[in-house]
Write a structure and sequence with these properties.
globular; 54% helix; 85 residues; Non-ribosomal Peptide Synthetase Peptidyl Carrier Protein, Chain A; mainly alpha
C-alpha cells in the first residue's frame, strides 16, 4: 500500500468519515474548505493520528507544518521528510 493510500485511510478512520472511501479523496484535493471540508478540530485530530502512526512531532503553530496539511500528497511529503531525517 502506498503512503498516500495509508494517509487516506488514516484520515477516514481518525475522523470517523463513515461515508468517505479512500478513492473519494484525491491526493491533491484540498483537505479543508471547499475540498474535503475538514475544520480546525479535524486538523488537531489528524495531527494526533499522524503523530501516533508515524512518530512525527507536529507543532501546529508552525506555518511550515500547517502548509503540509493542504492535501494528502503534502502530508505524504511531510511523512517522507520525517522518515528520511
Amino acid at each position: 500500500m502506498s503512503l498516500e493510500a495509508e494517509i487516506k485511510l488514516l484520515i477516514i478512520k481518525s475522523l470517523d468519515l463513515e461515508d468517505v472511501q479512500p478513492a473519494d479523496i484525491g491526493s491533491d484535493l484540498p483537505l479543508f474548505g471547499e475540498g474535503l471540508g475538514l475544520d480546525s478540530i479535524d486538523a488537531l485530530e489528524l495531527g494526533v493520528a499522524l503523530q501516533k502512526r508515524y512518530g512525527i512531532k507536529i507543532d501546529g503553530r508552525s506555518d511550515e507544518i500547517r502548509g503540509y496539511f493542504r492535501s494528502v500528497s503534502t502530508l505524504a511529503e511531510l511523512v517522507r521528510q520525517f522518515q528520511s531525517a
